[in-house]
Amino acid sequence: MWLWINEIMQQFEKNFSRKTTFCWFVIILLGLMTRSDHLGITSIVRELSLAAGAYPAMLHFFRSEGWHVEGLKYTWLKIIATTPLPLKEAGRYILIGDGVKCAKEGRKMPGVKKLHQESDNSSKSEYIHGHLYGGLGILAGNGAKLYSILLSVRLHDGIAALQEWLWGDECDEESHVVKMVRDAVRAAQQLGESILLLDRLFLTKPMLLALAETPNLCVVTKAKSNATAFYPPSPYKGRGARAKKGLSVKVWDFFSTASFAACEMNLYGKDQIVRFFCIDLMWGRGLYHPLRFVLTVFADGTKSILVSTDLILEPTQIIALYCHRFKIECSFRELKQVVAGFSYHFWSKAMPKLQKFKNNDTNHENLKNVAEPRKRKLIRSTVNAIEGYVQISVIALGMLQLLGLLFGQEINRCNRRFMRTVSCVVPSERTVADFMRKNIYVLFRFFPEITLTSIIQARQSVCFDDVS
């Protein structure tokens, strides 16, 4: 297992312009995978028994210009694609996208804005100040367990002013929905033909327009209960303008008028009888894009309108695919709780102070009016530090998931850890992290010659006089 980790980490070396920068990346990545507490960078120093000078050096690493987040994303996607674990449907990879909101109280932290939370949980505030991220994962696993292994998580809102600094005032801020689709389009260009699973929030006209830029990607999502669609236009009779659409129809009305088929499917780990009705309609006033609607009634009586941009997918395939969408919610939970991927506190004195009782437009104008080049550079470096920390946390979580899938039996058989009940042959991310934490001494004792060991041991004994 340790040799496999060493081999994977060496593949990231090409993304760093200096050897020292790569060494700090390895230390931080391994520290995020093994630390026992989430009290900042100091937890990595304690867990790996590093010298005290490692703390400021690691803080400097996140603001360094010797590496870029996009390079890490590309290499991480390439690593995932070379493993036999990603699942395919009809010869296409299965991507999953969704947004996640992270509360932040920093008054001088870039990207923080007022966000609305749609949740039935009464413990959550309706409005928070924080960061809005767009996460993209790929469905992978084996017959025992499936994961949505995150490929990237990046800021999707609150940084429009930075884009205007780089590309001018005429730059239009793309919506969260469009950015999500563009992230998936870039991934599909590297992977090949793919299917993107999205929540019902993303079924919009801008999403369909952004999707038209590539033929390698189709979307499976969910429609709202008040969705209105159109029948295809009647055949052209040779007189007048060609009709773009036919009669309109409320899609929900088919639940009471259509004849449903039934089949038995394994959904969410349970066999159940599912009733469905499939029809191809046109959607989007002014756009009239052909979509496949699958009206579904589950065993508990829940009704859903599923949608596919690919008119070739079978109704049962669409239902089974959409049921995998929730996997990314589980990955977000583990990213928060196991790796603490959102526990950063990067800020800059150059940032205008956040006015919490003003609207987002006021704070946007205050940031836009920052004219001094030095202050702009400091703010951009802070944004890069935030996105870099989150992306390295994404890689750390993905490696824990890959270790559970590839070395699950060895981890479960280890006599140095006890579990009263082993619920699955594939251990969870938390179990893998606990196993690595308790057995990291094996790395130093039995593999002293590998790159991973030499990098860590060099930082345990050296005195850091110059942390730059």
What is the fold's blueprint, element by element?
Layout: H1 2-10, H2 19-34, H3 42-47, H4 54-62, H5 69-82, E1 88-89, E2 92-103, E3 113-116, E4 127-141, E5 146-155, H6 160-167, H7 176-191, E6 194-197, H8 205-211, E7 217-223, E8 228-230, E9 248-250, H9 254-257, E10 261-267, E11 270-283, E12 289-297, E13 303-308, H10 315-322, H11 327-337, H12 360-368, H13 373-406, H14 408-413, H15 429-446, H16 451-461
Parallel strand pairs: 2-6, 6-7
Antiparallel strand pairs: 1-2, 2-4, 3-4, 4-5, 7-13, 8-9, 10-11, 11-12, 12-13
Describe the structure.
It is globular and about 80 Å long. Strand 12 and strand 13 form a beta hairpin. The protein has 468 residues and is of the alpha+beta class. The C terminus is likely disordered. It is built from 16 helices and 13 strands. The relative contact order is 0.16. Among the domains are: 129 residues, no CATH class; 125 residues, no CATH class. 40% of the residues lie in helices and 21% in strands.
Shape: globular
Mean of residue pLDDT values: 90
Biggest β-sheet: count, sense, barrel? 11 strands, mixed
Count up the helices. 16
Detail the poorly predicted runs: 462-468
Quote the beta fraction: 15-25%
Percentage of residues in helical conformation: 25-40%
**Strands, total number:** 13
Distance between the termini: 33 Å
Query: How large is the radius of gyration?
Result: 25 Å
